[in-house]
Amino acid sequence: MTDTQKPQKNGKVPLVLFVDDNADFLEEIRFVLLSNSICEMVTLTDSSQVLAELDKGIYSAIFLDWIMPGVSGADLLPVIAQKYPTIPVIIMTGVNDIDTVVSCMKQGAMDYITKPLDSSRLISSINNAFKILELSNQNQQLQNYLLGDPLAQPDIFKDILTGSDKMLSIFKLVETIAPSRYPVLITGETGVGKELIARAIHKASGLQGSFTPLNVAGLDAHMFEDTLFGHKKGAFTGANELRQGLIAKAQGGTLFLDEIGDLAPESQIKLLRLLQENEYYRMGSDVLLKSDARIIVASNRDFKKLVAEGTFREDLYHRICYHKLHIPPLRERREDIMPLVNHYINMAAKAMGKRAPRIAAELRWLLEEYEYPGNVRELINKVGSAVVVNKTGLLVQSDFPDLAVRSRTMIDAGAKVANSQFSLHVVFPTFPSMGQIEKLMFEEALKVTGGKKGPAADLLGVCRQTVQKKLSELEKMN
Ligand SMILES: Nc1ncnc2c1ncn2[C@@H]1O[C@H](COP(=O)(O)OP(=O)(O)OP(=O)(O)O)[C@@H](O)[C@H]1O
Q1: Residue 266 counted as domain residue
Q2: Residue 413 forms part of a structural domain
Q3: Which residue owns the Cα nearest ligand 1 atom 28?
Q4: Which residues form the Sigma-54 factor interaction domain (predicted)?
Q5: Nearest-atom index, ligand 1, CA of 188
Q6: Do 185 and 304 sit in the same domain of this protein?
């Protein structure tokens, strides 16, 4: 039964869809909302109409009963989350059961409310949904802005091969933040191109000084201080000459500190002081020196985790991430794979003075499906050694010995099965084989016909002999 009530649309008050097979509960909600002009509501008691209703594109949020006859909230949630990712979904459940709640959240629900109705909880949940919607709209606007205008200085990015919108929006951000003198934190997996982006920021900044890189991983506190700040002659045994340090070299330019997540604790204090005061001392000297270098840092580490573990200072983290850029891994911008492969094949062939080999069709598929844990650097290495060993002029799979591919489709399907996002999970805890389904169908048909093979065969649309044969097979298996 449908009891959709048409909203009095005034174009200003947001519209929320409430779905529950219990009409009395929907009336209770209506009563609460009448005294709060927070939103207008449409109610549905027939859950089969939900998707058609959402297709109208007029809703700001949906409240969904978790357990309903026919299509339940549990069935609808994954579909809505996928088809209408911007609409906040709030689950209404009669049980305050943590497993149900965790399952709702995992599948994309924004919030949940429990029955019986708590009016203040309902209102705060609606308010939160509207806030999230507003943020997501703002985010979309920003994204449109970032993707809308062409790059002001495309030449700056000519070394970074890409056709990905994600990378293009990073280029826009680079142009936006380049004139700022505040630190930039670039994150992303190893080999994604963090240093290339740091160099692009330097170029776009127009700073006249040099781009000075330093990988801080593995430097102990003494080495870090000496390399970065330099030392006075005679500061320690072996310090026979004055050392300027890289910070002096980066004067008027950019200092790029790579692998910053691995910085030793004592070195973190030294770097914090530099960032706070723009001042430093050379080792063994009490002359205070000023630095005007722009500082860019990069890491493949998870800073939230490092800060929580106490291995990275929180105050330093807040200093370095004034501007933040995250470079997506290559497997999240697969459109870049083949242009990079072709580019680096040409480069490797040119370096060896041989003709660039072609790529066999089945290899192209493997290259596009591979996960690239080492990202672009791994791609370059693999392509380079394949070009070296290849003698035929046609690159084939054996030229890429460790290109183990798990298809993306299988990975996605695995994740859905793990999260019970398949309708058969009500009966089968894991995704069933055809054999398991067939067995269940025969068993169920015999159950409902009281073990009578003729009617069971009619139900299944097969002949009696097939039922007989299946039964003996099943008996043998048992
Ligand atoms: N989009 C790209 N186009 C062309 N070359 C690229 C691209 N991205 C990365 N590379 C190349 O891949 C290699 C690795 O890039 P880069 O050193 O910038 O990565 P990284 O993220 O800083 O790595 P790490 O985390 O190990 O320091 C470099 O040789 C770089 O020139």
Answers
A1: yes
A2: no
A3: 377
A4: 160-388
A5: 21
A6: yes
